[in-house]
Amino acid sequence: MPRxxxxxxxxxxxxxxxxxxxxxxxxxxxxEDRLLALxxxxxxxxxxxxxxxxxxxxxxxxxxxxxxxxxATAPPPSSxxxxxxxxxxxxxxxxxxxxxxxxxxxxxxxxxWSDDTATQLEATVQFRKLLSDGKNSTMIxxxxxxxxxxxxxxxxxxxxxxxxxxxxxxLTNIAASDYTLLVAxxxxxxxxxxxxESPDANIRHQATWALGNIAADMxxxxxxxxxxxxxxxxxxxxxxxxxxxxxxxATWALSNLCFGKLPAxxxxxxxxxxxxxxxxxxxxKILADACWALYYICDGxxxxxxxxxxxxxxxxLVKLLMHASANILLPxxxxxxxxxxxxxxxxxxxxxxxILPCLAxxxxxxxxxxxxxxxxxxxxxxxxxxxxxIQAVIDADVxxxxxxxxxxxxxxxxKEAAWAISNAASGGSSDxxxxxxxxxxxxxxCNVLKYQDVDxxxxxxxxxxxxxxxGEIGKQGNESVTNPYAQFILENGGLDNLEELQDFDNDVVYxxxxxLLERYxxxxxxxxxxxxxxxDGSAEKVETVPEDAAQPPVPAPSADGTE
Length: 563
What we know:
Family: Belongs to the importin alpha family.
Region (Disordered): 1-93, 527-563
Protein name: Importin subunit alpha
InterPro entries: ARM-like, ARM-type_fold, Arm_3, Armadillo, Importin-a_IBB, Importin_alpha
Function: Binds specifically and directly to substrates containing either a simple or bipartite NLS motif. Promotes docking of import substrates to the nuclear envelope.
Structural class: mainly alpha
């Protein structure tokens, strides 16, 4: 069974026995949920939201308005004169200063609401410094002071621009907390979107940062940002000669905006044009966020896979499979896994780009388990395709490595490998099935029958059924000859696992297991006097063979094969 919605080729291939009880759409949704949970675990909230830390060195001098190309990662301009500091102040001194300022919170609130611009700026700087301690208690007290709408108002003040900068910084750090929704609903979002077109590069950078934090919190916050048209002005940032630090923030913000289901009015192709350039970056942070954004589009946009293929991202993605950093490999291989969930034509694109030799290396070498699981998922999607695609997997020597994992790896990785083998066995040609058996797939496939995953066990049964059919063809009509594959399964304990499926809590699995038992092991089944009744309550009628019937032994195929 493919790890995706069944394709027409699968339906035609499985037409001989198409049970109604396995819901492919339900199976696909459950696997996609697991994939999404996997991505969440590997890219935690600390990577979604980013606080802008208070610099420990002395504040920088005031930046002239004309200096629009200043580095956006530098500390914001301060109204205080600069003075050199030989070393950062100790942490105790910073905490003491923050505590002292917290005691004067009411005075700071009064200053923020004053009519004097210099006083407003002074108070906003104090709030920004106060938030630098990262304490939740400090955040709560500031929020209860009801100053967020005032900071949102400051975002529209063009003079002095430093007030916009400081207000945006305050809102950025509040948005990085658990109180993001308050920032999203205080009127700041439309003003932050407007600041993406500010002539000041520092302000544009800070607005991008704030919007990225808001979009990262929850779907409703992200929708607020999207509803105010943030995508277009954000994409415009990438057309400038950006500093690497600013480009990192913009790419990260774009990735957060792409997460989830993008609304229909958002144009995906302009985003993909930018991503197709970003995935060539030498900077790992830019590269990782760009690949996550690509995955989100492929997963959350109708037709996103084809849009990504049309944007020409596949050649570079395949090259990145050999990247030395696991931080890059994970989003790259996850994106390719999503693309492999497309139709046979879309899957063929990544096959032709040379993904299979890369997968063979990933499966053979000492890569993290999560990388190998994603590699097996891609292989399983390819083997769910045409016979030519199955043959391409065999020719690239990928199947050997998958069978080794099926025999020797941990259970969760074995399951992924089992999907790949089962799909190949279900849809493979006679020669392909013989190849799989010669490499020793039968015994580990029989062990998969012990798992409680309905879709996996059923697909494994389909694969075994196809293998057993091939064994019957090999008899060339000579009924006195034993099916060698059935004999091998019997001698290696596979029959016990099949019989256990008579108690499996799923009708479809039960019926196919019984079909195989009756067809290929009728004598062994009839010997079991405690054979249970069928699921509909009627007794099963099993043909028996006389005990004295001739059963000439046939050597079973090797479980090892030549690896």
